[in-house]
Amino acid sequence: MNTQEQPIIIQGGMGVAVSGWPLAKAVSKEGQLGVVAGTALDTVLIRRLQLGDAGGHVRRALSEFPYQKMAERILHQYFVPGGKSEAEPFAASQLHTVHPSSRQRELIVVANFVEVYLAKEGHNGLVGVNYLEKIQLPTLPSLYGAMLAGVDYVLMGAGIPQLIPGTLDRLSNGEAVELPLRVADAKNDDKFVSYFDPGEFTNGEVPWLQRPKFLPIVSSATLATMLARKSNGKIDGFVVEGPTAGGHNAPPRGKMQLNTRGEPIYGERDNADLKAMRALDLPFWLAGSYGSPEGVEDSLRVGAAGVQVGTAFAYCRESGITEEIKRQVLQASRTGQLDVFTDPLASPAGFPFKVLRIDGTLSESSCYASRQRQCDLGYLRQAYRKDDGSVGWRCPAEHVDTFTRKGGDENDAHGRKCLCNCLLANVGLGQCRRNGYQEIPMVTSGDEVMNVARFLPDAHAESYSASDVIRHLLSGVKSISAASCT
How big is the CA angle at 452 (ends 450 and 456), to the nearest 5 degrees? Predict the structure, then answer.
């Protein structure tokens, strides 16, 4: 593992390919922790190949994958020289299953390897990968693919990742692993698990792998304490995320109450107990409106190792968000015309989800109404026990009749949005339907998006870089160090 000192800044693992390998690499080369988003990387990989793999980066990483027959199969199936036509749909992705085919496992492992390999290529900085605990099916092969590429940190939120530390231990030793699956209506004697065996995957050619450090993303000291004491392996620190951070937020503690705009109301109980965090004697980073020099200073003064920052990096040149969205957001930030809505209904996962209101995106009711509901990617589907004892899948964002026919509550489908498709559209990988409908974006950002224009180098600049963000955030750190020595 890289022996560099722990970072002050962790770049958030945002969305689907927003924090892709170019952003993570740029941050890592500056001496901080660059993080790639691990969500939907199998779909990201095959769509990049279908667009022609501009620059040849994916093909270069595929050529370094240790099991070349697997890489060659993927390249043969999905690469389109020169790229597909704009009106041609992307090839359909296979929905994840409890018992994936060998080809599905290969694609997940290879996709995670490619993203981490490209982020680590050509420098000695630290690179992490961020996963969502609630997306369970691809977790094990995803971890293995990232570890094959030498990932330094694994971060995981949106759930209770109590079994991940031991999973990393076993995978590093080439041992088979399994994770229990959450299945609605399961019986006491049911056993639903996902399973991955490195020996089977590599046909017995199992390498020893370095065990990455593990940082759960938590919203409370109570959860952090439980994980530190009861996880099945070593916890190496925490990211403590507040409700102003982008993406999925933890729900407020206690009974859900909404403000006049229809947003969840957070109170003092939702702020993490930093005294309790310090008592764990593990490094922790604070996230949620810490994307400023003052935020970094404050975090260090209260005993944190530093901060996790997402929104500031989301609109820099190296992020995966389309240039059109970046320009729109930066211009609106300059004029103070941005609005972030914490939507309690948008996510099929049931977590509150930060939505940046932008014209022409699913944040507009007219755009939402014009989209035909369907679930063809399925990352946020919910597992349920069917009458015959097998596992079925339903999504509150799919067609309401389909959802209720599978036993879903119609009330749970109200206002749900297909995050899988719109987040891919955010990074220029949105599906074009055969009827001509083009999936449109829905942008998520933390409350700090109001201030992203501060990172522009001057009054005439139209963009900024990841290094601009880091330089600005660390501008007060030397003064803290000097003060602590006096």
Answer: 145
